[in-house]
């Protein structure tokens, strides 16, 4: 059974500590929706599919999968070097090096790479919260 932020995590944390629930939700939404509508030299690009793939890949790395998401998108949109970078930063941040950072998206701006970092760190935080809140839910029932 899916245990999602939108359906379960947010409502539980909002019951336990309403101010924090709202702040966390806003923080996740701001990072998830952040875009300049650019990719490298291209302008006017809808990056929502890419942002969703990055977010869901991070969740997948931590064992959270959603039945209503096509994980084929992850393999189509995220090249191997980007997946390696995401997994390294999310799981082994101490092993992140400048070489790892420069190996993915070589023609992209640093601001776009920073956005990837923001996405993966917030997705990682949300995944950790989902595990913790699910444990709290089980304890309460």
Descriptive notes:
The protein is mostly helical and 141 residues long. It has one domain (8-136). 69% of the residues lie in helices and 3% in strands. It has helices at 5-16, 18-33, 48-61, 72-77, 80-91, 98-103, 110-140, and strands spanning 38-39, 42-43. A two-stranded antiparallel sheet has the order 1-2. Helix 2 (18-33) packs antiparallel against helix 7 and helix 3 packs across helix 5 (80-91). The longest helix has 31 residues, at 110-140. The radius of gyration is 16 Å and the shape is globular. The mean pLDDT is 93.
How are the elements arranged and paired?
Elements: H1 5-16, H2 18-33, E1 38-39, E2 42-43, H3 48-61, H4 72-77, H5 80-91, H6 98-103, H7 110-140
Strand arrangement in the largest pleated sheet? 1-2
Shape: globular
Tell me the number of strands: 2
Rg, Å, rounded: 16 Å
State the helical fraction: 55-70%
Structural class: mainly alpha
Strand-and-helix sequence, N→C? HHEEHHHHH
How many domains, as an integer?
1
Strand content range: under 5%
Mean pLDDT: 93
**How many helix segments?**
7
The N- and C-terminal alpha carbons lie at a distance of 16 Å
Largest sheet: 2 strands, antiparallel
